[in-house]
Write a structure and sequence with these properties.
The protein is mainly α. 74% of the residues lie in helices and 0% in strands.
C-alpha cells in the first residue's frame, strides 16, 4: 500500500499534468494574440487614465475591497476523490501529513492571485499615495499573511456542517479582512498590530475547537469536485473535456426566445441551439459576463471613436471564440437523424444564432457609446461593429467550422 506522502505526490503530479495539458489548448495562438492586444491597449488606456486621475479618487477603498474578496474565497485544495470516503476514511488519523502538504500547495499556488493584482494596482497605488518599492514589498508580505490566515480559518470551518456557523464566519472574516487590508494600504501599522492580535485569537479559537471533530469527507469531496468542474468548464471553451459534467438550468423566463423559432423540421437545430444557449450556464454566462465587462470598459473611454470600435470588436471576438463550441453541443445526439432535412440547415441555423447574439452585443455597446459620446461616434461604432460581426460569423466562423468537419 502507498504511504501518505506517495498518495499526495501522485495526485499533485496528476493534477499538474492535467492542468498543463488543458492549458496547452487554452493558451492557443488566437487567445495569446488577444491577450497581447488587450494588454497593450489596456496599459495605454490605464496610463492615460492615471494622468487625469482626481486626487480624491478612492483607490485604497477599491484595492481593499478587491483584495478582501480575493482572500475571503480562500480554500484548501485537497485533491480528494469520491472513492477516498471508502479507502482513506479508515486511516483518517494518519492523513495529517497529507493535508499539511495540501495546505502548503494551496497557499503557494493561490499566492499568484495576490501578487498579480498587486502588480496591476501598483501604478494606481503610487499615484494616490507616497508609497515606494519598500512599502509595496511590506504590503505584499502582509497580504500574503492575511491570505495564510484565511486559509487556516477556511480549513477549520470545513469541520463544521452548520450553515449558521459558516455564514457567521464569512461576515466576521469579511469585516476583519476589509479592516486589516485597508490599514495595510494606508500604512497605519499601529491598528494593524491590534487587528493581527484579534485575528490570531480568532484562528486559535477555531483551530482548538475542531481538534475533537472528525473530517467531513462528503463536504471536502464535494468542494474539490466543484473546483475541478469549474476548471473543466473553462477548459471546455477551447477543447472537449470528457470529465466535464454538464448541467442545465430551466430559465423559464427566457422561453420567449425559443418561441421565436418557427415550428418546422428544418429548424430542429435552430431550436436546439437556442435551447442550449439559454439553458447552459457556460454559453449564456460567457455572453452576459463579456457584455457587461465590455460595457464597463466602454463607459471609461473619453469620446475616442477608435477606442470604442476596438473594444466593441475585441469583446465580440472574445465572445465568438468562446461560444463556438456550441456548434458541437449536440454532436452525439442521434434523435436529429429522425429529421432528414435537419442536418442540411445545421450550419445555417448556428450562424444565424451567432449573428443574432453579436448583433445584440453591437446594439448594447453602441447604446453605451451614445450615453458617453456623440451621435456620430455612436453611428460609426454601430456600423463598423455590425460589419465586423457579419464578416466574423459568415466568413471566419463558417470557414473554420467547415475546415474542422473536413479534418474529422
Amino acid at each position: 500500500m502507498k504511504s501518505v506522502n506517495e498518495i499526495w505526490q501522485t495526485r499533485v503530479n496528476q493534477h499538474i499534468n492535467e492542468t498543463r495539458m488543458y492549458l496547452k489548448y487554452m493558451l492557443n495562438d488566437h487567445l495569446l494574440f488577444v491577450f497581447i492586444f488587450l494588454g497593450a491597449g489596456g496599459a495605454l488606456t490605464y496610463q492615460r487614465w492615471l494622468e487625469t486621475l482626481s486626487p480624491d479618487f478612492p483607490a485604497i477603498v477599491i484595492m481593499t475591497l478587491t483584495f478582501a474578496f480575493i482572500v475571503i474565497t480562500s480554500s484548501v485544495r485537497t485533491l480528494l476523490k469520491v472513492a477516498d470516503i471508502v479507502f482513506l476514511l479508515p486511516m483518517e488519523f494518519k492523513l495529517r501529513g497529507y493535508f499539511q502538504k495540501a495546505f502548503r500547495y494551496s497557499f503557494i499556488t493561490q499566492s499568484f492571485f495576490i501578487i498579480v493584482p498587486l502588480i496591476l494596482f501598483t501604478p494606481l497605488y503610487f499615484k494616490v499615495t507616497d508609497a515606494n518599492g519598500r512599502t509595496l514589498l511590506i504590503c505584499l508580505g502582509l497580504l500574503l499573511l492575511v491570505k495564510f490566515w484565511n486559509l487556516r480559518v477556511s480549513w477549520a470551518m470545513s469541520f463544521y456542517t452548520e450553515a449558521s456557523a459558516k455564514w457567521s464566519d464569512l461576515i466576521v472574516r469579511f469585516v476583519l479582512n476589509v479592516s486589516v487590508i485597508y490599514f495595510i494600504f494606508s500604512q497605519d501599522y499601529l491598528f494593524l498590530i491590534v487587528l493581527f492580535v484579534i485575528m490570531t485569537g480568532y484562528v486559535l479559537y477555531f483551530s482548538n475547537n475542531v481538534k475533537q471533530k472528525a473530517l467531513k469527507w462528503e463536504q471536502l469531496i464535494k468542494r474539490e469536485e466543484g473546483k475541478k468542474q469549474s476548471f473543466y468548464k473553462l477548459a471546455n471553451l477551447f477543447t472537449d473535456v470528457p470529465k466535464l459534467k454538464k448541467q442545465a438550468k430551466r430559465r423559464a423566463y427566457l422561453d420567449w426566445m425559443v418561441k421565436q423559432v418557427k415550428y418546422h423540421q428544418e429548424n430542429v437545430y435552430e431550436y436546439l441551439y437556442v435551447r442550449a444557449l439559454i439553458r447552459s450556464g457556460d454559453y449564456l454566462g460567457i455572453i452576459v459576463r463579456l457584455t457587461i465587462i465590455g460595457s464597463i470598459i466602454l463607459s471609461f473611454l473619453n469620446e475616442q471613436l477608435t477606442g470604442y470600435i476596438v473594444v466593441s470588436i475585441l469583446f465580440i471576438f472574445l465572445t465568438g471564440i468562446q461560444i463556438m463550441s456550441l456548434y458541437k453541443h449536440f454532436e452525439l445526439l442521434e434523435l436529429t437523424n429522425l429529421y432528414p432535412n435537419a442536418e442540411k440547415k445545421r450550419l445555417t441555423s448556428f450562424l444565424k444564432i451567432m449573428f443574432t447574439v453579436f448583433l445584440v452585443q453591437t446594439v448594447i455597446y453602441s447604446l453605451i457609446t451614445l450615453l458617453f459620446a456623440t451621435v456620430s461616434i455612436f453611428g460609426g461604432t454601430f456600423i463598423v461593429t455590425a460589419l465586423f460581426s457579419y464578416l466574423f460569423v459568415f466568413i471566419y466562423m463558417k470557414n473554420r467550422i467547415k475546415k474542422s468537419e473536413k479534418d474529422v
